[in-house]
Amino acid sequence: MLARETDRPKTMMLKLQLKVPFAMALDAHACIPIFHTWIREAKVPNEVLIDVADYMHMTEGPFSLLVGHYRDIAFDVDSFGRGLQVVCKRDIEGDTRTQVRGLFDHMRTVSALLAEALQTIPAKLIAPDRARLRLNDRLLGSDPEACAALETAVREVASAGTSLEVERSDPRRIPTWLLSHATSVLA
């Protein structure tokens, strides 16, 4: 449990971001019509999809963004590489472990849907042997107990044998964990 988790409402926003790199070359333009289809057909379970934004004019950041009520889904390019990113941004019920499990489950669902739309198999779309997890909350990120609790939850949820490396080159930066596994971090 995160520090003082028992004192807070069950629907506290954890603000997690999980990114899994692509294993294949993928054109950011290909995601735009796919994302629009997902909105029209309500393809993503347990999510209210709202809009698609095109940021391909940016040099780094989300190239294609599917805005959801609870989570955003993005085709993203940054120093971690090209990849699929899910960002929790609203009240997701449950304790830390439940929220982390939900994030991993959502990533599996979204990557399978994208692979289906691109007519490939999920294992060929993403490289699930590594991932990046961020806690987008500076207040919680500066709390060592909260970070330790999140790390424990990730270890419980990720595939057995997944290693976690904390990326903290600057204490002012948002805590980030790099996950790696021989085959898949998405247990």
Account of the 3D structure:
With 187 residues, the protein is α+β, with helices and mostly antiparallel strands. It has one domain. The protein is built from 5 helices and 8 strands; from the N terminus they run βαββββααβααββ. An 8-stranded antiparallel β-sheet has the order 2-3-4-5-1-6-8-7. Strand 4 and strand 5 form a beta hairpin. Helix 2 packs across helix 5. The longest helix is centred in the middle third of the chain and has 22 residues. It is globular, with a radius of gyration of 16 Å. The N terminus is likely disordered.
Keywords:
single chain, 187 residues, alpha+beta, eight-stranded antiparallel β-sheet, 5 helices, 8 strands, 31% helix, 28% strand, disordered N terminus
Helix content: 25-40%
Spatially, the strands of the biggest sheet line up as 2-3-4-5-1-6-8-7
Count of helical regions: 5
Shape descriptor: globular
Strand content: 25-35%
Major sheet? 8 strands, antiparallel
Total beta-strand segments: 8
Mean pLDDT: 81
Q: How many independent structural domains?
A: 1
Radius of gyration: 16 Å
Topology pattern, helix = H, strand = E: EHEEEEHHEHHEE
How far is the N terminus from the C terminus? 21 Å
Brief rundown of the structure:
This protein is of the alpha+beta class and 187 residues long. The chain is 31% helix and 28% strand. The chain starts with 15 loop residues before the first strand and ends in a 7-residue tail after the last strand.
Summarize the helices and strands and which ones pair or pack.
Elements: E1 16-21, H1 28-41, E2 49-54, E3 61-68, E4 71-78, E5 81-88, H2 96-117, H3 122-125, E6 130-135, H4 138-141, H5 144-157, E7 163-167, E8 176-180
Antiparallel strand pairs: 1-5, 1-6, 2-3, 3-4, 4-5, 6-8, 7-8
